[in-house]
């Protein structure tokens, strides 16, 4: 038997096994991105032949006040997500694992319920809660003697965007609680035992032990929150559709209206392409910053 026989070439079998995944990714990811980029240089109503306009759509985008206001709201959503979803999710996960582990399963289930329910259903439920006439929010305010604070929460420009942010925080918090719960449980128990011997309280253990030990999970969840916030659509669309008077408009709802209400498919593609680039850029900046924070300022 020849011990020096050449090893079997697995290239062809590997490609055959990977072919279905490659075809799916190319069809539903690569092709739409390329086509969107191509369409962004054209004017098209979705029916007639696209007309090449060069950088005309991008020039229009640069001076489109509605787009930049919508992008600003996406940034606000991202900022609140980092605080109300990621940080609060980590704090709740620590409490469930280290402070009240005997009820952790029950509360974890409660936090996970919104994650398991469709965003459309959650949006419709909160529309009922926010109803100015028979909604539970105004009813609760009246019951506790704060009737002067009753509002048409989704119908007033001053409160619509805030109301949407509250729903987003409630909806996505459970996902981060679940992810951080798994991360906190992986922290060695010996570290907490040593901290107990030194007389450390939960506040100290949370910031000095838990956060450094689960930093990889923090970094991943921050990226997840940023990316999700910059492309959010469903809840805003169901709750307010960007209204009233575009007070809660975000980039995705504005893109939808431009493309499917005004039938400016070329300009909608430009908005989508810009949204994708800005989201990728923001994710890269955050990832680079968090990596430098981990390595002590070294790249």
Automatic annotation (TrEMBL):
Bilayer topology term: Multi-pass membrane protein
Keyword Transport included in the entry's annotation: yes
Keyword Membrane: yes
UniProt GO BP: transmembrane transport
Alphabetical list of Gene3D superfamilies matching this protein: MetI-like
Chain ranges passing through the membrane: 12-34, 75-97, 106-129, 160-184, 218-239, 265-287
Coiled-coil ranges from the UniProt annotation: none
One CC-aspect GO term: plasma membrane
Family statement: Belongs to the binding-protein-dependent transport system permease family.
Protein name: Lactose transport system permease protein LacF
């Amino acid at each position: 038997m020849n011990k020096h026989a050449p090893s079997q070439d697995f290239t062809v079998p590997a490609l055959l096994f990977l072919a279905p995944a490659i075809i799916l990714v190319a069809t539903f990811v690569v092709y739409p991105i390329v086509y969107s980029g191509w369409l962004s240089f054209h004017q098209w109503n979705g029916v007639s032949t696209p007309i090449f306009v060069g950088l005309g759509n991008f020039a229009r985008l640069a001076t489109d006040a509605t787009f930049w206001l919508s992008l600003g709201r996406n940034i606000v959503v991202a900022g609140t997500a980092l605080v109300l979803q990621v940080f609060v999710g980590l704090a709740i996960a620590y409490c469930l694992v280290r402070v009240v582990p005997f009820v952790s399963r029950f509360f974890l289930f409660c936090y996970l319920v919104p994650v398991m329910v469709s965003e459309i259903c959650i949006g419709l439920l909160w529309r009922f809660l926010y109803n100015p006439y028979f909604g539970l929010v105004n009813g609760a305010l009246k019951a506790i003697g704060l009737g002067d604070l009753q509002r048409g929460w989704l119908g007033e420009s001053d409160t619509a965007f805030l109301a949407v942010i509250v729903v987003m925080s409630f909806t996505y918090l459970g996902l981060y609680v679940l992810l951080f719960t798994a991360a906190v449980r992986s922290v060695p128990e010996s570290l907490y035992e040593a901290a107990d011997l030194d007389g450390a309280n939960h506040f100290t253990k949370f910031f000095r032990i838990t956060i450094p030990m689960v930093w990889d999970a923090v970094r991943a969840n921050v990226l997840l929150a940023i990316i999700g916030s910059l492309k959010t659509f469903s809840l805003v669309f169901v709750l307010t559709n960007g209204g009233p008077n575009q007070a809660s408009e975000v980039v995705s709802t504005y893109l939808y209206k431009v493309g499917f209400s005004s039938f400016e498919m070329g300009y909608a593609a430009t908005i989508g392409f810009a949204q994708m680039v800005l989201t990728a850029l923001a994710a890269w900046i955050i990832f680079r910053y968090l990596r430098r924070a981990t390595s002590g300022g070294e790249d």
